[in-house]
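hey can u run this one w/ zinc ion bound, need the structure tokens asap thx
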Amino acid sequence: MRILGIESSCDETAAAVIEDGRQVLSSVVASQLDTHGKYGGVVPELASREHLRAIVPVVREALAQSGTTLADLAAIAVTMGPGLVGSLLVGVTYAKALSFARDIPLVGVNHIEGHIHAVMLETGGVELPAVALVVSGGHTHLFEVGSGHSYRLLGKTRDDAAGEAFDKVAKLLGFGYPGGPVIDRLAPYGDPRAVRFTLAKMKGNSLDFSFSGLKTAVLRWVEAHDMSDEIAGRQALLRQAARPDTEQWLAVTPQRTLDLLASFQRTVIDELLRRTAVAIEATGARSAIISGGVACNSGLRTAAQSAQLSCPVYFPSPGLSTDNAAMIAAAAFSKLERGETSGWDLAAKASLPLC
Ligand code: KG4
Ligand code: ZN
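ok here u go:
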């Protein structure tokens, strides 16, 4: 049973074909990094335009790579939200048109549910109940995942998402966009204990996150140390090379800044894993899933494996952690098994809670 997945919620146009809910036959991702990089973040109007350009070739490529024709498809799965509404509309409208024209069942999928399902593609399923930490540029959410893929929200960020904090800190320091991958590469060169950040105590739900205070603490640190020359040096490097390599970054980044990056990354990782551990204990979870773009972070992966959590922890491989369409098709497979399909009233929704 083959499902075509389509994802266009943010700045990646993606299509994938999966078989029987598990096997990824193709997964094509057209990134818009070159379009948005120079603006230091995603520009919604440009994102919609790029999706319009990419959607047809990306879907054709995913079908061709998997040797699939439209007649082979059991369903078309599409991200319906949350995300940028203009971006979502491109995927949803295209999926609806294809589904209508070829009489193929349509399944609308929540992007966050997709991130959770990415792990099912490689593990063949995890023991439930599970705790899922979805940590990306738009989300930092902890869920309990029950049988039948029921979800309960345990906690979420009250301000910035963890990936957003990576991106804002990187931008502030002149490392460009997206910030997560660059900080990940440079953090091992710094001392993670060099800068101590004091985090505000959270009132109310102890499983909620907050990263804006940490971002401000980095800003204060930058203001207290004269960094304008080195920041200008990195901005100049970015104008010469769109994606500088590690050596090039190291040449324009002094030790104290590497220490700052390492300390920032360690603080984010500690916050994520501390609450995940509490959530596991509180729910008696039998497995933990960490997914979303920030799940690519090598420091987070290493720390999670050595954190001695009381259950196994699963990460999707990096290509399935960031936005992709295989995860959307995987989530749709579970819905199809339960007989859930969408009607023509399927609409793109910028805010779409999972539960
Ligand atoms: O899941 P994703 O591709 O898109 C969203 O749904 O947001 O996540 C993108 C986010 C960006 O904020 C990016 O900086 C972050 O994930 N990211 C990372 C790493 N790779 C991507 N953050 C930390 N370390 C990484 N290696
Ligand atoms: Zn995402």
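The mean pLDDT is 95. anyway lmk if its weird
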